[in-house]
Design goal:
about 180 residues, alpha/beta, six-stranded parallel β-sheet, 8 helices, 6 strands
Length: about 180
């Protein structure tokens, strides 16, 4: 079982919060792994964590076309950002693979993730909340979360976007296309 972080290794992305939560989680789930892919100013700190904290593997920067192979095997994708971010494409990519997410309850992510349905929302800056989400994700509800994640991805297909846009156009103009 592994959890996956893909993103910039910057303080505002919550990497330190992730590492703090992982220390506690790995003590209770020694068979688990945390796979980290990305680059940034905290790269050396992450490399150091690999030697100090059990169960972490660092991949460095990975090209976008190689990400699906990491995503498909993950128990969850972790996005512990501390910043207000907009639409999370990595969340939708995870959902499309049937992989639930653990994300910070900040910015636009609560509009994409239903807590306990297709993933978990956690309080930013809170390693204990992230640890609890890891523990929940390791539990038996994963199959349901995975199926719900796949269903959630269907809301964001090109066909669904077109239908939504057409309905909006018809509402605003009073005419059909």
């Amino acid at each position: 079982m592994y959890f996956l972080y893909i993103g910039q290794l910057e303080p505002y992305k919550g990497v330190r919060v992730l590492l703090d939560a992982w220390k506690k989680f790995i003590a209770e789930y020694p068979e688990a792994r945390l796979e980290i892919a990305g680059s940034g100013s905290l790269e050396e700190e992450v490399r150091g964590a690999v030697t100090r904290i059990r169960g972490i593997q660092y991949h460095g920067f990975i090209a976008h076309d190689r990400l699906p192979e990491l995503i498909y095997g993950a128990r969850a994708t972790i996005l512990p950002t501390l910043a207000y971010e907009t639409f999370g494409l990595s969340i939708i990519e995870s959902f499309a693979a049937g992989v639930p997410v653990i994300v910070s309850r900040i910015g636009a992510t609560p509009e994409l993730v239903e807590d306990g349905v297709n993933g978990y929302l956690v309080t930013p800056h809170d390693p204990s909340a992230l640890y609890s989400a890891f523990t929940n994700m390791a539990g038996a509800s994963w199959n349901t979360l995975s199926e719900n994640a796949k269903r959630s991805a269907n809301k964001y297909t090109i066909a669904q976007y077109r239908l939504t846009l057409q309905a909006l156009y018809m509402t605003l103009t009073g005419r059909s296309l």
